[in-house]
Amino acid sequence: MNWKIIINSKEVSGGLDIILDPHNDVIRFVILQYKIIDLPKLIGQVSKSISTGIEYAHIYNFKDMDWEDLAWAKNVKGTELCDDEMFLVHDVIGETIIKEGLFDKILFDYSSKVLEIYQSDTSLPANWKDEMKLALEKLNLKINTESL
User: What is the rounded (10 degree) CA torsion for 145, 23, 87, 35?
Assistant: First the structure.
């Protein structure tokens, strides 16, 4: 899977978009569903392989799912999740399964671009920039550890 982060997109509010090849709106909109102010929390949870969610968007990490969650995911997708996978659900668009390491990299690239654009935004809390940097460092460490 390939992806790129688009600035000044007219398709989504906020102007930042994720283009995936092959096309996958579930991955795209699960990430885009999160408000800029909430990204440090999302990144922190993903970097710890913790399942999380907000209204419409849910991220289930295999490492954090109990047997009932795994059975539900199998019933929905018709296949069992593996140890290195995540089950993404967007309540409006649908569901998909993605390798955890791949999702981590997409989220890291998107969030790095968000930090680049919004680091001087005075409408965000003063500590947002520091929280983003710390969260991205933790996610980057996870990505680099998984690559070994």
Answer: 80
